[in-house]
Amino acid sequence: MTIKLYGMPLSNYYNMVKTVLLEKGMDFEEVLILPNQESDFLTKSPMGKVPAMETEQGFLTETGVMLDYLDSLGQGASFYPADPYAKAKVQEIIRYLELYIELPARRLYGEVFFGRPATDELKAEVKAQLVKGFASFDRLAQFSPYLCGAELTYADFYFRFSVNLAMNVCKRALEWDRAAEAPQYNELIALIDERASIQSVLADQKKK
Ligand SMILES: N[C@@H](CCC(=O)N[C@@H](CS)C(=O)NCC(=O)O)C(=O)O
Description:
There is one protein chain. This protein has helices at 12-23, 39-44, 63-73, 84-106, 109-114, 120-140, 154-174, 178-181, 183-192, 196-207, and strands at residues 3-7, 28-32, 52-55, 58-61. By secondary structure, the protein is of the alpha+beta class. It folds into 2 domains: 3-78, Glutaredoxin (3-Layer(aba) Sandwich), CATH 3.40.30; 84-196, Up-down Bundle (Glutathione S-transferase Yfyf (Class Pi), Chain A, domain 2). A 4-stranded mixed β-sheet has the order 2-1-3-4, covered by helices on one side. Helix 1 packs parallel to helix 3 (63-73) and helix 1 (12-23) packs across helix 10. The chain is globular and about 50 Å long. Bound molecules: glutathione (GSH).
């Protein structure tokens, strides 16, 4: 059975998984659906979030899990190093991006993307989390030129679709120009954006 990817091109997590499917040259179908709490969708995605993935054995959710599943299928290129420690370092940086940058930044998506102003208290809390989050990420990331060294890894795809939005949140909700402080972020995004997979994902995002 062809893998089906549920979600929508506005979702950065959806785009991470879609990029990896494209990079691997795997056949897949896109099922366009918004996150929702309908009972039918909750049987597929227990939190009602996107992306979700339908495989011949059943459904999977959580972006990191889906990336690992696709990797373990062994089709197309792998973006994990063969060495177990080096692979764990890629997984570590993805975890940092998710827990300490993506999730705090998301707390201000309402203000930045959906016109729901956040309180000053919330902004101060998120700013403190992001200061720590970016500092910890900077201690792990190599930018030489990729996050984990000379080879492109899954962490770079995660970074591409996560940190650009987080920087947007910093600028628009916190008056904090993270991109100016860390020019290496946009340099890496520009490098990753040269890939055909990303170009195709971004073009689909613009269409919607
Ligand atoms: N931890 C999930 C997060 C996915 C997620 O938050 N997706 C957003 C769209 S970008 C969503 O479905 N939001 C709706 C909601 O939170 O109920 C993952 O890694 O895939």
